[in-house]
C-alpha cells in the first residue's frame, strides 16, 4: 500500500483541506451531519501523506501555516463581524457561543492534523496546534471585544445588586471564557475582568456607603452592610472564579465598613460604647463579626470594651470606698467591702463575661478588661484580702446552712474565676490560709466537703503547690480528731490521770499552718498537769517531734460560780488562766497578776480589759474607769448576773494584716531567687532581658514580680557567687557552677 | 692548646656574664637597703609609719593616688604594708633603686596605669586593696567615695562629683560591693554625661546606678 502511495501535491492537498474545513464549519453550524468515517480518514491521510512525503514534497511547514490561516480567516471574517453587530445580552450569548464553537473546531481539526501535532510540532519546537488556535482567537476576537464584554458584565452585576434578577448561568459562562482563553494562566481573567470588576465594586459600595450614612442609623447601617457582604460572597460562589471571592469580600468590607470605622465605632448615639451601655447584643455581635475579618480589626472594639468595663469597675470601687470611709472599725470595713465590692464585682464580671461569649466570640483580648479594677486597693485593703474574706463568708454561711450546697459551690466558682485576674495570687493564698486556719480551729459548724471543694477548684486553677499547705491543714485536723479519741481512751485507762479538767488537743504540722502570734503564760497547775500528760502520751508514739504549745489559739469553758447562778464562760486560754488566779485570792493587783502569769504589759492590758471593762464585767476594777493602768486592783465580781447561762467573752484581735503582707513579700523574694537560679542553671548563659522575661513568665502564675525586685535578686546572687557578669558580652550573665 | 683556649673562652664568658650580674645584684642590694631604711626592724615590713616617711621623702602626700599606683605595681596585698618581696617587685619594674629615681618614675607610672588595658586591672585592685578584713567583700560608703575620687576623679570629674553626692545622700545602701564598683567604671566609660541619654535601666546596670540616674534626672 505504502509503495503505491500517490503523491499529494500541495495545491491539491490545500484544496481538499479547505473543503474539509468548510464542511466542518457547516457541521458546526448545524447545517450538516457529522463527518463520515471515510471522509475523516481521507482528510487525516492527506495530512499524513503531506507530512511524510519525501522532499521536495514535504509540506509540514505549509500545513502548519495553513492551520493558522484557517483560524485567522475564520475569526476575522466570520466570528468577529458577527459579534460586533450584537449588543447587550445577545452579545454575551454570542460571545460564549463563539468560544464554544472555536473549541469544537479546534478539537476536530486537531484530530485531522494529529500527526503533525505529534511529530512536526515538537520537532521544530513550535506552539502546539491548540495554542495556535487559541492565540488566534485571543488576538482577533477576544482582545477586540473584551472591554465591551467586561463593562457589560459589570453592568449586569450592578443590576443584580440593585435587586434585578439576572441570568447567572450566562455570566458564569462568560467568565469561564475569560479563564479558558488564557490557556494555563488566568491572567486574562485577572487583568481584563477582575481588576475592573473590583474597582467597579469599590466604587459602587463607596457610593452606597455615602447614601446610607445619611439615611440609616448605625445598627441599621451595619445590618445592611452585612447583608450586602453576604450577597457578594454568594455571588462570588455562584458565578465568579474562586480566586475572586476573598478579594471581593475584602474590598466590599473595606468600602462599607473599614473606611467608616471611626464613625461606626465612636458614633455618639450608636457607637460601640453606647451599644455596650444599652446591652444591644445583636448589634455588638454584628459589629464584631464585621470587623474581625480584618487583621487587628477588633482592637478598637476591645479597647472601648475595656474602658467601659473599667469605668464600671472603678465606680464600684469608689462606691465601696465611700461606704467604708464612714466606718471606723477595721473588721467592719473588711466586712462591708467584701460584701459590697466583691459581690458587685462578681456580678459585673458575670454580666460582661456573658457579653464576651455572646458578642465577641470569647476572644481572650477582651478578658483583659477585668484586670485593672480587680487589682486596685480599696480603703487600705488589697483585693486579694477582700476575695479571701468573701470566700470565708460564703463557706461559713454554707457551714451554718444559710446557703445550700449548690449556692455555695456556685458562689465560690465565680470567685475563683475572678481570681485569675488578680496579680497577687500568693497574697490571696496567704489570707485564705489564715482564714482557713481560723475556720478549722474555731468554727463549730464546719463543712469539710465545702472546704475540700474550694481547694480542688483552687488546685485546678493555680496548681498543686498553691494548695498543698492548705490540704495539709485539713489533714492535720482530721488526724487530730482521731488522736483525740485515742488520747481520751488513754486517759480513761489510767485512773491516776483522771482530773476534772478535760483537755482537747489539736496537733498541727507547723509547716502547713500560717504563723500565729503566740505569747507564753504561766498556766494554772491543773492545766499544766494535763499539758504534761499529753506530752507523754504524744511522745509515746511520735518520738522525734517537738511540741510547741500555742495558747493564743486555745479556748476554755470556765464555770463561774456567781451569787445569782453558775454561768458557763467561753474564754480564751489567757482569760481563763487569769480568772483562775481568783480561785486563790479575791483581790489581785495588776502587778500581782502580771507577775504570776508572766505576761507582757500589752497582753495583760488586753486580757484584763476584756474581763473588766468590756461588755461583761466579770471582774471589778478599782478605779472603775475603762482604761487599765498598772495601779489598778481587780476583784472577782460575785454579783455578776448575765441574762443567759452561757456567755462568750471576746478579746479584740491583734493586728494581722501587716504581717500577712510582710510574710508574702519575704516569700516572694525567695521565689524570685529560686526562679533565677533555676533558669540560669539550665541555660548557663543568658542576657539580662531574657532572664528577666523568663523569670516573669515563671512566676506569673503566683504573682507579678516587680522588675526592680528581680534586679535586686540578681545582684544579691552575684554577690553570693551564683552568677557572674560575662566578661566579654555586655548585659549577659553566666551561671557559676 | 685546646685546653688553654677553652679556658680562656670560658673565663671570658664568665667575665662577660659576671659584668651584668654584678650590676644587677648591686641594684638589688640598693633596693634592699632602701627597704631597710623604712622597714620596721621587728616585723621586717614597711608599716604605715614607714610609708608616711617614704611619702614625705618622695614629696607626695600619702593619700595620693600615686602611692596606690605604686602599691599596684608592687602587687601589694595588705593596705598600709609593703613586704620585701613586693618592694623588690615594684622597684625593679620601675628600675628605681633610690628615692630620686623613684620620684622620677612616677610620671611614667601614672601614664602606664591610665592606659585602658592596665586601668581595667588597676581599678578593681584599688577596691580590693581597701578591703580591710579577710572575709569582707564590701567597703563602706565614705571610703568608697574617697576611693572614687582618688581613682576616677581626674578622668571623670563631673560624673564622680555627682556620684559621690548621691552616695552620701541615699541611705538604701550602706556599703559598696565589687559588682557595683565595676559598674561605676562602666558607667563613666559608656554613658554620655550629663545628658545620660544612652542609659537604659532595662539593661543589666546595678540597681544603685538606676537609682542614681533617676535621682539625677529628677533634679
Automatic annotation (TrEMBL), chain A:
Domain of life: Eukaryota
Domain annotation Cullin family profile: ranges: 382-612
MF-aspect GO terms: ubiquitin protein ligase binding
GO cellular component: cullin-RING ubiquitin ligase complex
Keywords: Ubl conjugation
Name the UniProt record assigns to this protein: Cullin family profile domain-containing protein
Keyword Ubl conjugation: yes
Family: Belongs to the cullin family.
The keyword Disulfide bond is annotated on this UniProt entry: no
One Gene Ontology term from the biological process aspect of the record: ubiquitin-dependent protein catabolic process
TrEMBL record, chain B:
UniProt GO BP: protein neddylation
Region (Disordered): 1-24
PROSITE patterns associated with the record: DCUN1 (PS51229)
GO CC, any one term: ubiquitin ligase complex
An example Gene Ontology molecular-function term: cullin family protein binding
Superkingdom, natural source: Eukaryota
DCUN1 domain location: 26-217
Compositionally biased residues, Low complexity: 7-16
PANTHER family: DEFECTIVE IN CULLIN NEDDYLATION PROTEIN, RP42 RELATED
Functional summary from the UniProt entry: Neddylation of cullins play an essential role in the regulation of SCF-type complexes activity.
Record-given protein name: Defective in cullin neddylation protein
